[in-house]
Design goal:
Length: 271
């Protein structure tokens, strides 16, 4: 199994300052070893028991008719499947539809990000929650996925980005695809790297999936800090995550290799 090309590995290594390349190699090797060990069906079934009895929320947020919701084909015990939306007409097999309000008059994208990022608004009474974008479909056992994606005791997990490796590349892509104002994105980048001297030392992430344990105080602080950046700057949440993380050094984070994400989920086209 190919883990990552030499070209990609070189780029990933550049994210770790002060010559700490060995740490990255050890982390990738550890992920690969665990994945190989847990690939057999019996191993996955045994390890999935780790999370079977916890109460879990699988949720998405759909605002402004930006995405098309896809049915849940298989529901597991101790999982709730909830779509939070501002569309009173929305219905979809397998999903519990819950209406959200917008008292602050947020635009559709920031309203979606509010419930995506601030999980404490929606996951009360659960042990942990898994957020996915609405264009992500499940294609595997969610408990088995958790056994690969969330280390024991970790309060938060998020995937590596599959092809972007730095804040600069993220901003350049957002500008090239007209995802937000080029002037705003440029100002945000220069504020972080110039005025705030942010060195971009962390692996770049993909925010289409977030796993969080309920009630973690440092995790809540990170989520609040992250959302504050969205209110001040671009609505593109991947631009501001690592800067928010630099302001919350005590927040625990578990990175998920993208091949693990692809094993259990399928990304579908936007509506």
């Amino acid at each position: 199994m190919t883990i990552v090309s030499h070209h990609h590995l070189a780029k990933l290594n550049n994210l770790y300052n002060h010559g700490a390349k060995l740490h990255l190699l050890q982390m990738l090797a550890g992920h690969a070893l665990r994945y190989c060990i847990m690939r057999p069906m019996l191993a996955r079934l045994m390890l999935a028991r780790r999370y079977r009895h916890e109460k879990k929320l699988f949720y998405t947020v759909l605002t402004g008719n930006y995405e098309r919701l896809h049915p849940i084909r298989r529901q597991l015990l101790n999982w709730s499947y909830v779509c939070f939306t501002d569309n009173p007409e929305l219905r979809c097999d397998g999903w519990e539809i819950r209406q959200i309000t917008n008292p602050d008059g947020l635009d559709a994208r920031r309203l979606s990000r509010l419930y995506k990022i601030k999980n404490h608004l929606v996951d009360q009474g659960c042990d942990l929650s898994v957020f996915v974008d609405a264009n992500i479909a499940i294609r595997g056992d969610l408990d088995a996925f958790l056994s690969l994606a969330l280390a024991p005791g970790s309060p938060f997990a998020i995937p590596f980005h599959p092809f972007l490796f730095s804040l600069r590349q993220e901003v350049e892509q957002c500008v090239s695809l007209d995802k937000d104002s080029a002037d705003l994105l440029s100002a945000q980048y220069h504020h972080y790297t110039g005025e705030m001297r942010f060195s971009d030392p962390f692996p770049h992430i993909n925010t289409r999936l977030l796993i969080r344990r309920t009630g973690d105080s440092e995790g809540k602080r990170l989520m609040d800090t992250w959302y504050d950046q969205l209110q001040q700057w671009s609505k593109r949440d991947q631009v501001s995550f690592n800067y928010a993380l630099s302001l919350c050094p005590k927040a625990g984070i578990n990175y998920i290799p993208y091949w693990v994400f692809r094993r259990y989920f399928k990304r579908l086209d936007h509506q």
